[in-house]
Design brief:
The protein is mainly α. The chain has a domain of 45 residues. Helices cover 60% and strands 0% of the residues. Helix 1 runs antiparallel to helix 2. The radius of gyration is 15 Å and the shape is elongated. The model has no long low-confidence stretch (mean pLDDT 78). InterPro entries: DNA_matur_Phage_T7-like.
């Protein structure tokens, strides 16, 4: 089981790194951001009560095509 855990940990790290690289490239489409948000949510990663993070969220909420706040992949066609 330890070997399987190591493989899962490696996969987790790889997915996180690839999402980070895509976002840092400045060319990531909204779908990559949605995947990153879901990845963080699925891993119970939440922001702390940081005013800057809250301000960023407020400024971005109207710029993304998400229509269902519980599903970041949903958007109008």
């Amino acid at each position: 089981m330890a070997a399987q855990d190591a493989v899962l940990q490696e996969l987790h790290e790889l997915v996180a790194e690839k999402l980070k690289e895509a976002i840092e490239s400045g060319e990531a489409p909204a779908s990559v951001y949605a995947q990153a948000i879901k990845f963080l949510s699925d891993n119970n990663i939440t922001s702390v009560g940081n005013a800057a993070v809250g301000a960023l969220g407020t400024s971005l909420k109207d710029k993304f095509p998400f229509t269902d706040v519980s599903d970041p992949t949903a958007h109008p066609h």
